[in-house]
């Protein structure tokens, strides 16, 4: 497990003299972009590739149920340059730990990746993650040597348990997948970020660049976006907008936003006389 | 809300949940022999025409043709002849098909929960069963004879499938039998009920409009559009299926309205993919385009045709 480097000056862990923004490191690998992109729901491969390019993303997720794992020439896999992008397969469609573990193993065996975005979503309507099965699957997969990035509801205790189980990140949702509602789980996300020793990636529900910027301002290490870009009338431009929003949000966080403080900072402090 | 406003809303909701994609699948007709006498159907036991039941090997040969066309999702269809298309037959075929297809669904006679469980364990992941008509009086009139005349047994079929564990349950009524407004209400309640009760299964709805039979209550294109949009607004995450019963131009225009899956390049006669010496069809296909042509039309509408959206290991 790689412990994350905190850089917000408001953080008690802030090390004085740290002028350079620290990179995002997941499982020992430096990740250049804090925007992860999902590849589902695009109108065609060309549009998807243009959007990935414009987003500057390094990590792209792909649903294993969409690819033909028996066929290395699968169009979907072929389309994405795996030298340039880190391929993050997901287990979407899995309804139990058993199913998720099974397809993760197949992905690894077929040489796709040993990184796995763990999604156990027994309900096909809201696609909300099952916390019990997710933890069960994470424990198994970590032991088998996978780099596990679990998709979870914004549950701080679950996030800690997954972290203890050896997950490389936690990926709490802002609101249900595809809902475009933004960060409705903001209070829990704040707690998760505060407590996490692994990177926190806000996943799902981010419908506008401003939602992504907010996640980053809160101190999330990265965000994952899919639907908002894929179904936009101009996916390439939307990808670019999210890229800028993520960068701006991160810079805002690093610059030390007042947003991270829940109490007012008085201009005439009551304890000023102590100086 | 006027129809255009309904359509805009429907499109928006569909894209949010399903993206700009259309899943393509193909039906494989196993047999047109049937013990029922549904007055509207080409497989009616009283209807004339050539009757055929494919052997497991012949069915597998047909399936190979569909696999070569690129299909990964297949729907097995048959009339009601439990003695011919038996459990043993289905299991043998499904085991063979598992190597070629990532998703196998069935649209055959209603079965018991235990039978469905057996098929589910053999590798069938989806069940299609239409009530045909929710109005009990009309149901009785058009299903005068045979096992299908039992309304309640048929009505409870999706539930038996849900309990057996099917990932996908597809329901519908035949457009043209009952008054569509009333039927739509019943269908929406049915789908809603199934969604709540079988919350792990994807519930889908088909819009099979009667062909080759004088409809009791005709459904216009405009009514079809209104049905799709109203259902979408009521049930934003329900799958919506459209077969080749509808002509190419209409199918293309319905893509951006709420449809999420379509069949293509279909034959509705057993053996119809490998032979033109065809047996009786269940209904005559109206969209005769090839897979490539249908795919091109989907792209032209700004959507991606998807052939694999499931994995048999799930």
Automatic annotation (TrEMBL), chain B:
Gene Ontology biological process terms from the UniProt entry = thiamine biosynthetic process
Checking Gene3D superfamilies in the record gives:
Aldolase class I
Which ranges carry the Radical SAM core domain?
A: 20-245
Q: Which UniProt keywords apply?
A: 4Fe-4S, Iron, Iron-sulfur, Metal-binding, S-adenosyl-L-methionine
- Its Gene Ontology molecular function terms? 4 iron, 4 sulfur cluster binding; catalytic activity; iron ion binding
Q: Which domain of life is it from?
A: Bacteria
**Matching InterPro entries, A to Z?**
Aldolase_TIM, BATS_dom, Elp3/MiaA/NifB-like_rSAM, rSAM, rSAM_sf, ThiH, ThiH/NoCL/HydG-like
What cofactor is this protein dependent on?
[2Fe-2S] cluster; [4Fe-4S] cluster
Q: Does the keyword Metal-binding apply?
A: yes
A Pfam entry, by short name = BATS
Output this protein's name: Thiamine biosynthesis protein ThiH
Q: Which organism is it from?
A: candidate division WOR-1 bacterium RIFOXYC2_FULL_46_14
């Amino acid at each position: 497990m790689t412990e994350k480097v905190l850089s917000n000056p408001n953080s008690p862990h802030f090390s004085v003299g740290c002028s350079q923004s620290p990179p995002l490191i997941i499982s020992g690998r430096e990740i250049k972009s804090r925007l992860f992109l999902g590849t589902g729901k695009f109108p065609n491969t060309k549009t998807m590739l243009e959007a990935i390019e414009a987003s500057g993303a390094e990590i792209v997720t792909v649903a294993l149920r969409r690819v033909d794992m028996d066929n290395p020439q699968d169009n979907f896999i072929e389309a994405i340059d795996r030298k340039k992008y880190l391929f993050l397969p997901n287990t979407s469609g899995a309804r139990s730990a058993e199913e998720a573990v099974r397809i993760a193993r197949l992905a690894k065996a077929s040489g796709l990746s040993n990184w796995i975005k763990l999604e156990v979503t027994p309900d096909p309507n809201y696609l909300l993650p099952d916390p019990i099965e997710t933890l069960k699957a994470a424990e198994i997969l970590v032991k088998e040597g996978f780099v596990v990035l679990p998709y979870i509801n914004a549950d701080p205790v679950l996030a800690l348990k997954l972290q203890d189980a050896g997950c490389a990140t936690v990926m709490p949702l802002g609101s249900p997948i595809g809902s475009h509602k933004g960060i409705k789980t903001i209070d829990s996300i704040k707690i998760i970020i505060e407590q996490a020793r692994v990177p926190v990636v806000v996943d799902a529900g981010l419908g506008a660049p401003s939602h992504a910027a907010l996640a980053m301002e809160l101190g999330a290490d990265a965000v994952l976006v899919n639907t908002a870009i894929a179904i936009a009338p101009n996916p390439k431009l939307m990808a670019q907008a999210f890229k800028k929003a993520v960068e701006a949000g991160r810079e805002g966080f690093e610059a030390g936003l007042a947003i991270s403080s829940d109490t007012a900072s008085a201009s005439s402090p009551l304890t000023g006389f102590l100086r | 809300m006027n129809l255009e406003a309904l359509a805009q809303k429907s499109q928006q909701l569909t894209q949010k949940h399903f993206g700009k994609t259309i899943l393509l699948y193909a039906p494989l007709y196993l047999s047109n022999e049937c013990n029922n006498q549904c007055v509207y159907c080409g497989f009616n036991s009283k209807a004339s025409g050539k009757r055929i039941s494919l052997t497991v090997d012949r069915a597998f040969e047909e399936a190979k043709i569909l696999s070569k066309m690129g299909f990964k999702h297949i729907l097995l269809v048959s009339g009601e002849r439990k003695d011919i298309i038996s459990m043993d037959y289905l299991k043998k075929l499904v085991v063979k098909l598992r190597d070629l297809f990532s998703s196998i669904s069935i649209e055959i006679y209603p079965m018991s929960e235990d039978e469905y469980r057996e098929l589910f364990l053999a590798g069938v992941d989806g069940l299609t069963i239409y009530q045909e008509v929710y109005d009990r009086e009309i149901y009785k009139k058009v299903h005068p004879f045979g096992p299908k005349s039992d309304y309640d047994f048929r009505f409870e079929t999706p539930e038996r499938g849900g309990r057996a564990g099917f990932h996908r349950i597809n329901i519908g009524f035949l457009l043209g039998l009952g008054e569509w407004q009333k039927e739509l209400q019943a269908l929406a309640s049915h789908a809603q009920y199934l969604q709540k009760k079988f919350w792990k299964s994807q519930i889908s709805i088909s819009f099979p409009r009667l062909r080759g039979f004088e409809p009791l209550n005709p459904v216009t294109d405009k009514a079809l559009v209104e049905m799709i949009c109203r259902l979408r607004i009521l049930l934003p995450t329900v799958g919506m299926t459209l077969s080749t019963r509808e002509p190419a131009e209409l199918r293309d225009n319905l893509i951006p309205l709420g449809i999420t899956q379509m069949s293509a390049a279909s034959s509705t006669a057993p053996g119809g993919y490998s032979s033109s010496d065809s047996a009786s069809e269940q209904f005559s296909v109206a969209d005769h385009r090839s897979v490539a042509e249908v795919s091109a039309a989907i792209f032209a509408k700004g959507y991606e045709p998807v052939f694999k959206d499931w994995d048999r290991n799930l």
